[in-house]
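Comment on the following before class.
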Amino acid sequence: MISLSAAQSDDRVLTLIAAVQQAGSSEALVLATRALAGCSDQRAAATLVEVLGFNNPGAAVAAVEGLIALGESAVEALLRLDAENYGARAWAVRALAGIGDVRGLDLLIEALGTDVAASVRRAAARGLGQLGLDALEPARRQAVREQCLEALLAATGDGEWVVRYAVAVGLESLASGLPGAAPLKQRSLAGLRGLAQASEENPRVVQLRAELALHRLEKP
């Protein structure tokens, strides 16, 4: 027998989903999405993903926050997103980067290497540095780290400084905790040293962030 509280919870989630689907204005959609994102119910994931394609930045931001809060339970819905819908895909990259689930690896790598928007590439760079790998078998964990490293190193030459800044953050996160002699850590340090070099195309803020990462990773 379904308890009253469970039935009430079902009714509430369905009501919140219906409010999103029936929103009659941009403002109403934002408010309804915020309410649905705050319900912390995995049944909201599909509708929140749908909102990412509605061309409403305010609602998309709320949906991304809700999807990140749902965590792993939102990943499958995000990966089923229509790849042809660029706007939705860009928001999905942000959500997957925030969740840190390894199932988003391929999409994050693709976004960092090919997306036209610097903000999306920046999110992907950060995401690649903070994937949750602890539950993986050692061999799989190493393989994923290598894939992340290759993508981040390639992006050290990105034309936008905000992306290179995020790459520095990603490289630090990826190499943190690894033994000093580990090849992956040494290659990460080499990439950071490149980002720390002064040049007309490399603003001081990127250099400083790379120097900070080097200091943290190289200290005894």
